Amino acid sequence: MANELKGVQVFAPATVANLVCGFDVLGMALQQPQDVMTMRLRKEPGIVISHADGYDLPVEPEKNVAGASLLALMEEYSEKVGFEVIIDKRIKPGSGLGSSAASSAGAVVGANYLLGNPFSKEDLVRFAMNGEKVASGVKHADNIAPCIYGGVTLIQSIFPLNIVQLTAPPMYVTVVHPQIEVRTSDARQILRKEVQLKAAIKQWGNIAGLVAGFLKNDYDLIGRSLEDVIIEPVRSILIPGFDEVKKKSKEAGALGGGISGSGPSIFMLSKEEYVAKGVEDVMIDVYTRLGIEFKTYVTMINYEGAKVVSEK
Ligand SMILES: Nc1ncnc2c1ncn2[C@@H]1O[C@H](COP(=O)(O)OP(=O)(O)OP(=O)(O)O)[C@@H](O)[C@H]1O
Ligand SMILES: N[C@@H](CCO)C(=O)O
């Protein structure tokens, strides 16, 4: 039954995909930043998108990731419906913090609520993956799943979709976003298509170690497993200051970290808040010296996914 309310406000969190070693399979939701969306049911079918931010993103439904995700949802809904969507992005597009996923996930979470929740979370991930296809050319769910489920998620399989929610201990996350844009589509194109067996063995050992570390609340194991021998060596050259930030953050006590999603943001995990703040000082120092504009966040893992926060 469609909700008779005029509209809802939805918050959709930033996410860190890959979590260093888990390319396309692991992701985590952050408490900050979060996109804000206002959604209403329309009397007429169709999608009307507008923006309350200065990013000049497309308004055509099939070009905007929110619209593409809603079109997929509408195709499976039993009746003809229409939505109005106002997007206020607080997660900069192309940041590597799951900006596209937040719009895709937020749109389908809001629509589901307005329609009286006919769809499961897994359905919503499936719909929102159509947005990722628009943004990066490929359907992947490592930002979408944590954005919808919250916490840390594992995409065990994408076709058929199998999402595993992982428990994870509280962690502080320090993020630096150098203000350069790295498009996910470009950052995927530069990757090698073949992997050496030796590197693959190292990588799947690290993925298994990281998942075990989360489930066992074992911070040392988490730290030891935050290593990527396949993707990071190729992509990190797109991010000035990457090696220095990583090295000095670990010296400051961080468990470890790496490229957030496809970059350019870098994230580091810490067990304690004072360490996370010391890591932020490291990041500020590196990017100030490099003369590159940047933004930092000290935040935490977010155990909640995108949600309706108020009815309007
Ligand atoms: N509503 C939207 N929000 C964000 N990006 C959008 C939206 N609609 C279309 N796009 C397009 O998607 C691209 C941004 O997605 P991209 O995946 O490159 O960045 P990201 O989501 O910040 O990074 P990552 O997926 O690595 O975390 C841009 O080309 C942008 O124009
Ligand atoms: N797994 C994706 C996340 C970015 O959207 C990548 O690294 O390309």
From TrEMBL:
Q: Supply the source organism's classification.
A: Bacteria, Pseudomonadati, Bacteroidota, Chitinophagia, Chitinophagales
Q: Which domain of life is it from?
A: Bacteria
InterPro entries reported in the protein's UniProt record? GHMP_kinase_C_dom (IPR013750), GHMP_kinase_C_sf (IPR036554), GHMP_kinase_N_dom (IPR006204), GHMP_knse_ATP-bd_CS (IPR006203), Homoserine_kinase (IPR000870), Ribosomal_Su5_D2-typ_SF (IPR020568), Ribsml_uS5_D2-typ_fold_subgr (IPR014721)
Family, similarity comment:
Belongs to the GHMP kinase family. Homoserine kinase subfamily.
Q: Just give the chief location class.
A: cytoplasm
What protein name does the entry list?
Answer: Homoserine kinase
What is one Pfam family matched by this protein?
GHMP_kinases_C
Domain named GHMP kinase C-terminal is located at 211-283
- Pathway named in the protein's UniProt entry: Amino-acid biosynthesis; L-threonine biosynthesis; L-threonine from L-aspartate: step 4/5
> Where do the annotations place ATP binding?
92-102
Coding gene?
thrB
Q: Where does it localize?
A: Cytoplasm
Purpose: Catalyzes the ATP-dependent phosphorylation of L-homoserine to L-homoserine phosphate.
Q: Which residues form the signal peptide?
A: none
Q: Keywords on this record?
A: Amino-acid biosynthesis, ATP-binding, Cytoplasm, Kinase, Nucleotide-binding, Threonine biosynthesis, Transferase
Report the top EC class in one word: transferase
Q: Does the keyword Amino-acid biosynthesis apply?
A: yes
Entry annotated with the keyword Amino-acid biosynthesis: yes
The catalytic activity of this protein is classed by the Enzyme Commission as 2.7.1.39
Molecular function as annotated in GO: homoserine kinase activity
- What range(s) does the GHMP kinase N-terminal domain occupy? 69-151
Q: Which reaction does it catalyse?
A: L-homoserine + ATP = O-phospho-L-homoserine + ADP + H(+)
